[in-house]
Amino acid sequence: MKLVDSFFSRLARKLAKLPNATGVYFFYTAKQELIYVGKATSLRSRVRNYFSAGGKGGVRRPIGEFIRKINDVKWQTTGSALEAIILEANLIKKFQPRYNVLGKDDKSWNYLGVTKEAFPRLVPIRQQEYALPQSKPGKQNKQNKIEEFVYVFGPYPGLNTTAALALLRKLFQFSTCQGAAPRRRPCFYYHLGQCRGVCTGAITPAEYRRQVVRPLVLLLQGKKQSVLKFFAREMKRASRRQQFEEAARARDQLKQLRRIQDVALLNRSFIGKEPGTPSLRSGQARIKEQMRIEGYDISNLGATEKVGSMVVFDQSGPVKSGYRKFIIRTVTGQSDVDCLAEVLERRLGHRDWPLPQLLLIDGGAPQVNRARQVLAAHHLALPLVGIAKGPQRKKNDFILNTQGLASSAAIRQWVERHQVLLIQVRNEAHRFAIQFHRARRDRV
Questions:
Q1: With respect to CATH, is domain 293-443 assigned 3.30.420.340?
Q2: Over 90: is that where the pLDDT of 260 sits?
Q3: Strand pairing partners for 400?
Q4: Residue 334: burial class (beta carbons within 10 Å; 0-12, 13-18, 19+)
Q5: CATH of 2-77, one of 3.40.1440.10, 3.90.550.10, 2.40.160.10, 3.40.50.12780
Q6: In terms of Cα–Cα distance, which of 20, 152, 29, 178 is closest to 98?
Q7: What is the DSSP string of 167-209?
Q8: pLDDT exceeds cutoff 60 at 158
Q9: H or E element: which one contains 304?
């Protein structure tokens, strides 16, 4: 009994030292066998969830045999959720911890593959679609080479691949265009500064492999410091050659990598999933990577029944499964600007929702400026478009904010060419807000 009390006391002291930081945690047996590796946005809260108050020494065993095998807990902090995801995947591949391997049966383990093309793309792969060959620990490059891909990285348990690909595209500007033939018009991501111009012939295959694929692969191998050194060298090299646009691009990539903003990388539905337990969402189909525009509007009758709407569009039109309604809770009196700020704050609190490539506001400069402040508070830089409607809703003045973004002129050109689409998004956000407001008013 004294030995048991001593174990619980030692474990409780160790749990008390857990930092409230992003990182990876490790569970060991009494023989120092690594049996589970997990990631967390908060190591303190995630690891403590495995244990709860009560029983001997203030700790009880909530998940049976797995917890009874844990004799020691260790952890490693990381600078971002992305780095935690990469570190976890590399350690699982290297050590094959017993309870991580059991968890693979639920088909929720995603991989990322670099395609074997002249201009390689980074694409998601589902566990059930590919069975990777096994190799000796540490032989990552050999293990990653399968028929259709130069590299396959993972597994990434519970990864929100849509959000991960969106973040990695912003960081490395890899192409999502199939085929190397130049198009008459550049793709959407080129206008956002998230594509190096494969679609226009602006970059050669050799340049693309060195400037885009090489640093991307290094990061997915867990070598972030090598990536930082690479972009620092690229910046100096371009400056010496007076290639100032290239130098500015490398500088911006260096800055973004040092402060990775990775909201929504982890699917919340998987965060609470215990090792070895099947996921309820194992049959979910892979979500196709798409452009995402979010439109917002506020509706009220004076100072009463204030509501907000969020609509989502992609290349094909409205995505009604992404629509959201908000009842304004914190704003007293009538202030559309304050209502909009509340809606955006609450929306950005949902890390399981993928981030858009563009935000559209039904309103003018005051609304756009307030939205920019909310994004800045969350360390996000996204194109913001407001459409001022006028008293009769016959006015369509576009207000564009691209503060903190590269290629602002190209984004402005894209907005000018797609005004009809953006007006459609604005009108749908307005319709959805009015519909919700009327429904609430009719119930009163």
A1: yes
A2: no
A3: 385
A4: middle
A5: 3.40.1440.10
A6: 29
A7: HHHHHH------SSSPPSS--HHHHTT-S-SGGGT-S-HHHHI
A8: yes
A9: strand 304-314
